[in-house]
Design goal:
Blueprint lengths: L13 H9 L11 H7 L2 H29 L3 E2 L10 E4 L9 H4 L3 E3 L1 E2 L2 E2 L1 H7 L3 E5 L7 H6 L6 E5 L7 E8 L8 E9 L5 E9 L2 E10 L2 E9 L4 E9 L10 E8 L3 E6 L5 H6 L5 E6 L10 E5 L16 E4 L9 E10 L19 E8 L3 E5 L5 E6 L2 E4 L14 H13 L5 E4 L4 E3 L6 E3 L5 E2 L2 E4 L2 E4 L6 E6 L4 E8 L12 H8 L5 E2 L1 H20 L1
Parallel strand pairs: 2-3, 2-6, 6-7, 15-16, 15-17, 17-18, 18-23, 24-31
Antiparallel strand pairs: 1-32, 4-5, 8-9, 9-12, 10-11, 10-13, 13-14, 19-20, 21-22, 22-23, 25-29, 26-27, 26-30, 28-29, 30-31
Length: 537
């Protein structure tokens, strides 16, 4: 470990100089016999006396400087009685074939999602041998900060010549009675096209198995499945023995929703909502007057006078309320029109897979007042709030440009799924936390059959953080399976993108340096011995 902050102790160098002048003996004039006077006046003896004092001063200063340099662990460009350097082992997923136990590592670099925290470890241990495949994703912070570590010698491990990895998947609208599309994105990093066998498993049963030819670069493979209502788990597996093994499997979880009855309260014809709510998935009724009593699974209020709606409607049927020209209501107030975009969506948000929401500028004139905020505008106002069985938005689906954006339909389906509180499935990366909103106390069973009880965050809200292993995590109440959490590695770990030679020179220099502590301690001891001998003469 290096302590360059000890260099401030160089400010102590004036201490021996001050001590030197304080202890300097003054010469006094006295009467001597003539012969003694001649002997004491020898110029050579006086010159030696002055040189000796100067040498003592320099030796004492040298002792202090050497001790300070030794405490600071300064680096030297040659070895000096320091043949052993600590082995710092990169344990990212791409280094899976090199285990810490087999390499006898002194320091193992932890990873998150499969990507190593190299910059954190080198700050604490800037001297040693770094064993790594030098994938660029683990060195981003080092390259960004442009901080050099000349005390590190990089022992670069070769990556495979090619690799095929599954880096993403997308699930279409999952509703009963219709085919659900699952699209997998596969990266082929071999120099040419390659034929491989792929197998799709759903609920531990092989659904599809075939040979496919993957072109160099990005490939997309789609499966259309007809599944029963309820939660499902699965994975796609690729047979690629020459590349990495950790990215040959992509885990997924999905919930097949039943046909949902939707009631739309609106004075005007809800053209956009009717177009968005696919009749294959939804049975929709448009209601012009609130006196009409129609049974439904959920309701949507859009462009309807809010004073004509009974606010206890959400006690029995969940719903989505869109405010436009809100006037005065318990849940929103009318404000002058504003323009803003939605702020960053966290990885634990139920909308984490809808990143395109961030690109839309939304015009609104209602400020939401009550409920728990699920999404924010960048100006701090709430874009989506929830209170009990109700969701609130400050825009009208019919009158806003938001409903013309391609992300509107997946967003609307996500709202319906959220309000129905049937889909508890999650899809996250390794080491990401996940928030579960369940009406029961959940128990999580990991891929290695360990059971966890998530931490409670309040009423029907739980936090689960033990996702360091890829695979399928089961959500249950101890008696029944309610859903699954699919956990996959960070897709950047799949890419064969390593540091270039010029990057290595920038980070670690042209050649390694060695710990100079031993050298400076030896120098300090020699200077101290010389000063002691000289002082006795």
């Amino acid at each position: 470990m290096s302590f360059p902050q000890f260099l401030f102790l160089l400010l102590l160098i004036p201490i021996p100089i001050i001590f030197h002048f304080i202890s300097k003996k003054l010469l006094h004039k006295k009467d001597f016999p003539s012969l003694l006077f001649i002997l004491r006046s020898d110029r050579r003896l006086l010159r030696w006396f002055l040189i000796r004092r100067l040498l003592l001063l320099l030796l004492r200063i040298g002792v202090i400087i050497s001790l300070i340099f030794a405490a600071s662990n300064l680096l030297i460009p040659f070895p000096f009685f320091d043949p052993y350097n600590k082995i710092i082992l990169d344990q990212s997923l791409s280094m899976e074939k090199l285990e810490a136990s087999s390499y006898k590592a002194d320091i193992v670099i932890p990873n998150r999602g499969g990507v190593s925290f190299i910059h954190n470890v080198l700050k604490k241990h800037p001297i040693g041998v770094l064993v790594s495949d030098a994938q660029r994703n683990g060195f981003k912070e080092l390259l960004k900060n442009e901080k050099r570590y000349p005390g590190i010698n990089l022992d670069k491990i070769s990556l495979p010549k090619g690799n095929i990895g599954i880096i993403d998947h997308q699930i279409g609208a999952p509703f009963i009675g219709e085919y659900t599309d699952i699209m997998f994105t596969i990266l082929n990093q071999y120099k040419n096209s390659k034929s491989v066998y792929i197998s799709l498993y759903i609920d531990d049963i092989v659904i599809r198995q075939k040979e496919v030819t993957l072109n160099q670069g990005i490939n997309e493979i789609k499966f259309s499945l007809s599944l029963d209502e309820g939660p499902h788990k699965g994975y796609l597996m690729i047979n690629d023995k020459d590349g990495f093994q950790f990215d040959n499997i992509r885990y997924l979880s999905l919930f097949i929703n039943p046909l949902t009855k939707v009631i739309i309260y609106s004075l005007r014809h809800p053209e956009r909502l009717l177009a968005a709510l696919n009749p294959s998935f939804f049975h929709v009724n448009w209601v012009k007057t609130p006196q009409e009593e129609i049974e439904g699974d959920i309701f949507i209020i859009d462009g309807f006078p809010l004073d004509m709606i009974s606010w206890n409607i959400g006690d029995s049927v969940p719903g989505i309320v869109c405010f436009s020209n809100a006037g005065e209501s318990p849940y929103a107030n009318e404000i002058p029109y504003k323009l803003s975009k939605i702020t960053n969506i966290s990885s634990i948000s139920p909308f984490s897979d809808l990143k395109t929401l961030l690109n839309i500028t939304i015009r609104y004139n209602s400020k939401l007042e009550m409920g728990r905020t699920l999404l924010y505008f960048r100006n701090g106002d709430a874009f989506l709030k929830k209170k009990k069985n109700l969701l609130f938005l400050p825009v009208s689906f019919e009158n806003s440009d938001f409903s013309l954006h391609p992300v509107f339909i997946p967003f609307l389906y996500k709202l319906v799924s959220l309000i129905l509180q049937k889909d508890f499935n999650k899809d996250i990366l390794m080491d990401q936390a996940v928030i579960l909103e369940t009406p029961f106390n959940p128990i999580i069973v990991s891929p290695d059959d360990r059971k966890y009880v998530p931490a409670s965050l309040g009423v029907d809200k739980y936090l689960f953080i033990h996702t360091g292993k890829s695979g399928i995590y089961e959500i249950s109440d101890g008696f029944r399976t309610w859903g699954y959490i699919s956990v996959n590695p960070d897709p950047t770990e799949t890419y064969l993108d390593t540091l270039k030679s010029e990057d290595i020179v920038i980070l670690f220099g042209k050649k390694g340096y060695n710990n100079g502590t031993t050298l400076f301690l030896v120098i300090g001891c020699l200077l101290f011995i010389l000063s002691a001998i000289l002082e006795r003469k």
